[in-house]
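Batch manifest, entry 17 of 40.
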Amino acid sequence: MQTKLSLFCSKIIEAGWLAAIVTVPLFFNIYSARTFEPDKITLLRAIVSIMILAWLVLVVEQGFGAEEGESTTFSERFRAWLKRPLVLPTLLLVIVYIISTALSISPQVSLWGSYQRLQGSYSALSYIVVFALMAGQLRTQEQVDRLVNLVIITSVPIGLYGIIQRYGLDPLPWAGDVTQRVAANMGNAIFVASYLIMIVPLTISRLVRSMVEIIKDESASWGHTVLAAVYIFALAIQLITVLFSQSRGPMLGVMGAAFVMGLLLLLIPRRQAVDTGRLAVKEIALAIGFVIPLGVAGGLTAGLGYAIGAGLQRLLISLNYQIDGIGFAGAALGGLLGFFGLYTYMVSTQRGWRWLWLSWLTIGVLGLGFILALNVRGNNLDPFLEPIRELPYFNRMAQITETSRTGRVRVLIWDAALELVKPHEPLGVDNDQFAKKDSFNTIRPLIGYGPESMFNAFAFVYPPDLAHVELRGSSADRSHNETMDSLVITGLLGFLAFYFVMISLFYYTVRWLGWVPDKTAQYGLLAFLIVGGIVGAIIPYLVQGEFTFMPLGLPFGVMSGLILYLAWQGFSGPKISPEAGRLPTYTLLVIGLLSAIIGHFIEVHFVFSIAATYIYFWAYAGLLLAVIRIDTMKPIPDSSSVAAEAIEPVEVVSEPVSKTRRSRKGRSRRSRKTETVPAGPSGSALPVRRESWEMWTGSQGLAMAIILIILAFDFITPQFQFTLSNEKSASLFWMVMITWLVGFAIVMGSLAVKQDEWRTPLHWGRAVALYAVTSLTYFLLYTMVHRWQFGRRIAVSSIEDVLKASGILSGGLIIFYIFLVLLMVIIAITLIWGQTRGLPTWRSENWWLYPPLVLAILTVIWFKNVDVVRADIYLKEGERYRNNRQWNEAIALHEKAISLDSDEDFYYLMLALDYQLMAQDNRLDANQRQVAWQRGEDIALKAREINPYNPDNTGNMGRYYFTLGQVFSPERFQDALNYFEKATVLAPSNVIYRNLWAQTYYILQDYDTAIDRLQTSVSIDPEYAPTWLLLGDTYAAMGDVDQALAAHREALQYNSRGSGDGFAGFADQFFDQRLNFYISAGRGSDIIAALQEVALARLDDPKVYWAIGHAYNRDDNPEKAAEYYERALTLGDNSDTTLREAANLYLAQEAFDQAVPLYEQLITLNPADVESHSALAFIYAQLGNLDQAIEHNRLVLDQLPNDYDSLKNLAILYQQKGDLQQAFDAAQQAQAVAPDAEQASWEQFIADLESQIAESS
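Output type: structure tokens
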């Protein structure tokens, strides 16, 4: 039974998916430590929780299965439900996720998600819930339009923000550089491009729809013109931002999506051509030859566009505006206009309908060949292609196959991930209380390690070479390939379920588009998809003999199979399928959705999915099912109607024909005006009343309000001061204003297009006012509350005040959540306005179910979503205090974070770090420091208990005990040895922990065991300089000069990010000890020769020359030392150490002219440098410059008033100068501090001065 409550719940569900598609890409939180992905996901999960609550109440009110419209058993309904498209593969995927999570090596991480990503099963199932509820509850054309409009509008502020970043107008001060590669609202250049490639095809589909209406009907509504202009603007923003991201994977995704979309669009006229027979050879030749006029048209208009762009750029420069790349942008835009303009002309004049699709396929093949040519070097085409490779944006596309940087990272990760998929020894540590041996190791190839568990598992197979191209010690938590990720986290079962979903999606979408006319075609499509995937997976093995590139070959094999199937249909001539006429309204939308999914499918095999792409993928899948469901409830028109609704030819006809078309169009509109859209698949479920234009406009305005309040939260900070005179704050104003205007134009244009379909007459003034009021009022109200909350100030004088001040930021987040939920409620109320008449309020007999349901959902929202972000806010504030060495405040804030999210090991690690740094603070007494050490130990152990398979948690305990052994008791070194051993079991190739393990043995003077551990490190990674350095030091401790020298020589030759700087390690604080070892053994010349080899490789490094000079100096070879000191100084080494050593050396050699400028330079750096003043005083005294000598001695006394040597020198200098009274005063001061043995001498000196003074007077 439908009730007012059930109807309200159904609209809450819709408000939920509208909020989800806006918040996930648009929202970020600068007040938390993570800012982007986890904050987006927690907000999404809260929204989905509300949607689940609404659905549960809806089911209670209406009864489960009420939509089936017939009294069947649950098992019958369940079987019928499984037969629906995508239901079975999605259900299997859910089951696999549940199994993998339950049997994960880190079940808690797999369920709730990791600290960095938060992409656990809870998040994954939230995406799928959105899919299921959209598929079931999205039932009307108005809902479809509202959703699609909002998807496109949401991309506008994100794209604009990327452009703002590119030109240095960002209102937020990010730590990283966001001008070279824009990150927008995603925090990562790749992520923003990954999101936008899922919007571009949808925008194109809407643009094509409006253009078709404009072309085919001279009297088409002005709304189509407005919409076309707005879609072009939005599309330009999206594509520019993708280019500014300079992300190769998403660029490939955009090109792949565009290719498939163009192919599907041009196959529509192929099916609508009068002759649908097989293509003739002549037509194939025409299609291939058509590439030439396409190139000519594109080239001519590109040249024109470049000229216009270059002229515009010169004009802007004359007006003091510097914007680069306008000429390039003009050429690109002109080329596209000419290229697609020719296609538009051919379609609109019914020319080449049968073979235009083949010309597009030819373009695709040529484009693929061009990209491959850009990436294959060392051939005869290089002279022609090299200039292109240097062009902006083309340079990124020319690096797709590079294997020296990020490409190498991916290859190494894929190789290692394959090792995880294969059978291997179980993860875990014998006899460890927490990191126990993996009891499910034998079935890991089937079920995987669990969502979000790759970080822990990957350490077991970490390839040492990865440390030389990426940050050493960091484990991979993603494979940068969706296929490989599915194999690792969910095993073979998850892999099969994932491809079951994807192939089903491709199969059903192509079928719904009418390209699967019979059983033969069904089997053919499945064969092309499956066999294509298998062939794609095998080809890399046949070429390389390895499966490294299987995760790339398989998805591209599937895509190739899909394209070959469509080409087969195009060549052979399409038959009319039962579905061919079922999508007159949604053909373009379905093509856009499929193209977006394909673009996403391509790019996630070079990167990895994020919250925005996950939610959009599942939302698009739900939308696909929904539009098919909506359309199947309508009468199936004959095949001729499809042409009129998809791409109708423009004919030169007389006026009466045009009137006939308009009258036919009007009859169609009138027939749709009274149409009722059934809710259920059988056509017998409850009817849904069409929305009024007021309801539709108001709901669109409220949806815009979601965008605006998120922008307010994102950008209006406590420090934000708006003024149009400030470029950065003005950029925010224009971003908001343009976004609002785009939304306004889309809504007004849509109202105009459907003007004849509304139940009541449309009043434009009321429509404008309604949209403005609904969108802006709520935004302004929220902005005022937001500014009030974040503008509050607390005078911090205690720990409680620190927590209250941080609570302001936390409270701001809660206020945003409340406003968003209230806005969802308002949207739901708007959508049921006037539709509840005659319905009972609720089923009162079920009232007792609702309080516990509400309480349970609110508990989940608060404790597993809101508190997760609040904890991160307190963490970030704590880090600020820790950086200021305010330990108690940092500890209080981090303890607060733990109280909010006690399941996250990262918070314990940060709190342990607070205590560790506090324990090393010399400002504290010994008892306070000891307590801090002990407290930090307990907390670090708790972090390991929560996530024991993370090798860093175990390694950190080893480091902790290593430090405790040095600070307190050597007995703690045994604990360090124990944990370092466990860390190397969890991460066998981590040489950092192996070296620390060896270093502990070194301190314990167990040199043989230390050597054994270090030799193992060398066998794992022979190019890691710290290993060789420690090995050399250990041999030195054993007195083995030859072995020590060999190891130190090896260390000195390395200098890279992955290998470390061997020279810097050798010339550290223990440099003199190492030199003394070799010099005392008579091998000083050998170690100096090794340093000279370093100098040959680092000709411009002054530190190397200083080190050689220092070594010569200690080896008592001052001439050579001076030579190398001079080289260091010539190369710009003005460090105190080099200047002082060189100056002292010249002083010892009495080379005063060379010593003086060096000492003076030292005094310039530090005017209070006593040593330099003393040296200059001595030099000037030797040179007979008594005034300068006296001055520098006095400067010494300014710092050291009782310095005996300076007082003694002053007395003598004043005597030599003849200033006897000054000499007498200085002598008295010197006598006062002189040693007892020299007192008699001073008495005589003073007596002599007195005599001289008496004589002179």
